[in-house]
């Protein structure tokens, strides 16, 4: 989720995965998948940068969590993202 500011000055969090499009009328208009919209103070460049930063943080956490354990430690190795439960090659 990313933090944005409405034209009234109210700050709010928006799920960036639910953004359908961003319109550039004199203000920046965020249109959501359910057709709700928000007029925000941030520019398109700022919004896309915030989305990219958030996605990078999520990927960093994912990388840390899926690092394989040391095979000699006795702990089971983490499942790779391409393996599904019950699926064998």
From TrEMBL:
A Pfam family that the UniProt record links to this protein: FlbD
Sorted UniProt keywords: Cell projection, Cilium, Flagellum
Chain segments carrying region Disordered: 69-89
PANTHER family: SWARMING MOTILITY PROTEIN SWRD
Protein name as annotated: Flagellar FlbD family protein
